[in-house]
Amino acid sequence: MNRNHLVLASLLLAQIPPAWAGRDLVSFPKAYSDGVRYAVVHRGNIREEIFTSRTAIDAVRNGRPIPGGTVITLVDYRDGQLFRYVVMEKRAGWGTEYPPDLRNGEWEYQAFNADGTVNVQDDVSRCLACHKSESPRDYVFTLERMKDVR
What we know:
Elements: H1 3-14, E1 36-43, E2 46-52, H2 54-61, E3 71-78, E4 81-90, E5 107-113, H3 125-131, H4 143-147
Antiparallel strand pairs: 1-2, 2-3, 3-4, 4-5
């Protein structure tokens, strides 16, 4: 690669929105349904089923922080049909690329199509901005529901 190509590549990378910083970190959680379905949310024609691990549920129920390695999977149905998956995953050191007004601790987000492929059209910066308001609850809207699971 010559110098001009490096300059062009650097300029193109600089144009990538910050929300793309960690998108390649989160993989499709193939075994999400082996975890605990701890919440179902209905909004009009949308039904969202939310899954996480027993380890995460037990930590929250016992007053401990959500542990690193936790994956929360939202399965989004529209009019009874699988529409997409939205996944948030927590790992030590993740999220440092984001400015303070977007950073969600060590959480990263990814959206997947119904077939499990990455949905590159879905803007995960919306996830970061929305979940920012939940910082007292480790950026998780459904944290209280985790406490109710037996």
